[in-house]
Design goal:
Helices cover about 40% and strands about 10% of the residues. The protein has helices at about 10-15, 25, 35-40, 50-55, 75-90, and strands spanning about 20, 45-50, 65-70. The model has no long low-confidence stretch (mean pLDDT about 90).
Length: about 110
């Protein structure tokens, strides 16, 4: 699960999954889903690691439970992932455009 919203996932969901974040301190504040989970259990042990940990091999991604990535400090990641998903769906021919959904899409090329 790519968790792009701040509070969409309940604490039970968060605590039953392998959680990865971009920055622990940034993600566990302001009432985010991971922060609420921390407040509920009183620790951060449910955080498996950071994006850096995964990319460098310091943390592995388990395949026996759901994985949640909460990139609350990486706005550019939101854009990159959105573009990737858009391109992938477009390539499969399954893209359904909603006319007028975006006011402007060509501002910067």
């Amino acid at each position: 699960v790519l968790h792009l919203s701040l509070r969409d996932l309940g604490t039970d969901v968060v605590l039953s999954a392998a959680n990865f974040v971009d920055d622990v301190e940034h993600c566990l504040k302001a009432g985010t889903s991971p922060h609420l989970a921390e407040q509920r259990v009183g620790h951060r042990d449910f955080i498996e690691g950071t994006l850096h940990d995964v990319l460098t091999g310091a943390a592995g991604v388990p395949d026996d439970k759901p994985v949640i990535f909460s990139p609350f400090g990486l706005g550019v990641l939101d854009l990159a992932l959105g573009k990737y998903v858009y391109d992938t769906v477009q390539e499969t021919g399954r893209l359904d455009l909603v006319e007028g959904f975006f006011h402007e899409t060509r501002r910067y090329g």
